[in-house]
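Render RelA/SpoT domain-containing protein in 3D.
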Amino acid sequence: MTSATSIDDLVEELYLQRRRAWEAALVTAQNFLETIADEILEDVDRDRLNAQTARIKDPGRSADKLRRYLSEGRIDEPTDADAVAEALPDLVGVKVLCKTPRDQLSFVAALERACNDPECSVRFAQPPTDYVAFPKPSGYRAYHAVLVVRVATHQGDLDVKVEVQVKTRLQDAWGELTHEDMYKPGEALKPTKKHTDYAAHMAHLLDQVDAMADDLAAQLDSLTAASKDGGVLAADPIPKDPDFISARVTRTGPRYALAVGPDGRRGLVPARSVKAVIGSTDRIAVNDYLEVGDFIDVVVEDSEDALYYHLTSQPPRRKPAKKRKR
């Protein structure tokens, strides 16, 4: 059997040979994933998807994992650095965090379309594993995919495997709340029935909260959505005895802004209100026209669903509008 020293030597050799390529592959993979997120969330809040968490596994942990795989008979004895890399496809990884399950579903669908496109330079190394549709017995939920990213090196092109985990924020939090790392194979603690029951029940509860978050997000979308007919929006009906006020913008985003009036109440400035005032025929981002701290003239609409502030004059413009897809 390969000695512990030999394992450490092979892992060290692998990291010396490939760390630079891994770092380049991480940058490429993150840019690829962020581009997909940009396309999905072109006209909504971009922070709903985040692919900024990336890592290269610690060499010591890689060596320990390799030794465990050998002791369990899961792999053949590695004889060179290439064999080590083949045995450990999760050496390089990126985590994509999604605000809600529908964002997760949208991202996964877009990722699969991209990687299955013959013209795409990034491809799947193997079929992805969907632990969302089919959770692990522990309750673990996530979508796992291993991407193949080609990197140019001084010795020629190198295909690097990058593990991608796509999770909602609550699916990600489950691991910390259940102390998952302490109960993984090879770790100090062995899961008891009480632990596994608790972990599975917590996963079920968090899944229900995720579904509720989806419902709330859909409700917000319906209240802030702009017209889908592509034409200029007519101004919203002015209520009887309208209340004209000056309000201060406290938050902006692609689809709406929030502003506070002189009475301290916060109102919603939807994209359709901005479109109506500027006479736009294109899709717009509200934060191209309004910034936090701007004072705007609005008419108040206090409906059953929300308190709306509709612009009555041209909004301040802080930056050129981006060209958006129709």
